[in-house]
Please model this.
Amino acid sequence: MFFGPTIRYFKSVGQVFLLCLSNGDHDGLGEVREEELQYSSKKIGIPEENLKIVENEGIQDGPENMWRVEHVGEEVGNYTKQCKPDIIITFDRYGVSGHPNHIATSKGVSYAYKNNLIEGDTLLYQLDSVNVIRKYSSFLDCFVSSTSKIYNIASLKDIINIQGAMKQHKSQLTWFRKLYVIFSRYMVVNTLQSVSI
Model:
């Protein structure tokens, strides 16, 4: 939903692994959403064996469910031991949309680094949250984003692929998410910040 241009870029130069910290069971649709994520990941180019969906009682979907950073950090640390990534990309402290689960994800990844749960010299990057005007300015944000140190602008082919991947999440495609797919800059461009912890 947010990382499409970056996933497509890294997919073109290497392997991409996806750790999803919840199956999205907030509305009782966890099994459906797991299947949708598998279809979406496949559509965007992530093989099924590179996708992990966490089932942890301490990390349940929903804006009212506060995730403990320790639980998130442990899950991230455990997964990095399996896939041994060179780079981890996560949300920044604003979580793009201000969603508490996205913010907890960012804090949990930082916790994993600070507590040496991530082995080796794995680099950390965070996806920039932007103001609402930039968020919904689609390709027009490319002009502003290109002034960032690290940015990924999707090709037209990739944008179509990213939008197609998003459309696999049928249970979540409300009217406002359909507008998001059309107008969000996150379908077209990502800007990242390198983080030192």
